[in-house]
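[Meeting: bench + compute handoff]

Bench side (C.D.) handed over the final construct sequence. Compute side (W.E.) agreed to return the predicted structure before the next meeting so the bench team could plan truncations. Sequence as handed over:
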Amino acid sequence: MKSMRQISLLFALLSLASCSEVKNNDYILPVPSNKPSAAQQAQIDRKYGMFMHFGINTFVDEEWTDGSVPASAYAPSQIDAEQWIKGAKDAGMKYVIFITKHHDGFCLWDSKYTTYDVASSSNKTNVLEEVAKACKKFDIGLGVYYSLWDRHQNADTKNCKLDAAYSDYMLNQINEILDITQKYTPVVEFWFDGSWEKPNYRWPLMDIYRTIKSREPNCQIGINWSIGKPDDIDFHAVYPEDQQEDYPIRYFPSDFRLGDPMLPKDDDPKLFMYNGREYYMPWESTVTLTEKWFYNTTDTVYKSVDELEKLYRQCTKNDNVLILNCPPNREGQIRAKDLELLKELRERLDL
């Protein structure tokens, strides 16, 4: 019988041989280790942050849209990014994760690679830039979310022949994001989503990792639903309560594990396998404050402070991280109720 390590290696090799091949370049890769790197330890020490879902979905009462909603639907009356970031700071949070592009493909900056962005709307504010400025002003870490799945630009995910052009598109946009943010502040985290729409080997993960790390060496990179099964590296989805030490890394290279909105188990493992080598990977929980990720006019049910305290304790023990989602509304502000609840939680936690 093959060992777990042999099975993980076999599936990794088989996946690379199908549909696309890894280029023979000098890639920047994580270092195998049974303990956190300095950059991982810095992420663990940040411990607590804010997710900010904002975009075209904010204006149509939907969580996911398919890229067909016209850019004109995006119409915030203002963008009060300083209120967002000050709110996170006042809550005792150490960083924020800002949605730059969700599955719909609408970009919260003026991208030269698409017209499906803020520049085609009534409010042309470069929201990413405003968030980066505010992070610098309030001395708080900046993380960015970017959906690999783009239903506007690359809706036909079944067609392998479209992969190369779309991979170039993503890498160009990631460089654009870094061009904007590096004027103001380092990016401490890249949060990638939507990868389940293609087999793992069809994403340019090594190119993405190298693109970011060559410019932001300490930036932590995570890809949602990070871990596979021993007999199927690309199985979707392996929940955190089912993950065990030396399970295979589904999306390699990456630095930490995701699987929203699931919570880690008490004896959460940290060592996972790729090509016969072990890598340390902490878990980051991303959880909503209410019931929705994006602002929605029907979203009025909040978690209690007791619930949030329990979440915080569970998600930050064992060297893991908690991110609470607080979505800006159509007036470009985080709701007063969200901020009041976060301040009450800070007092409870004595942060």
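W.E. noted at the follow-up: The two ends are 51 Å apart (CA to CA). C.D. will use this when planning the next construct.
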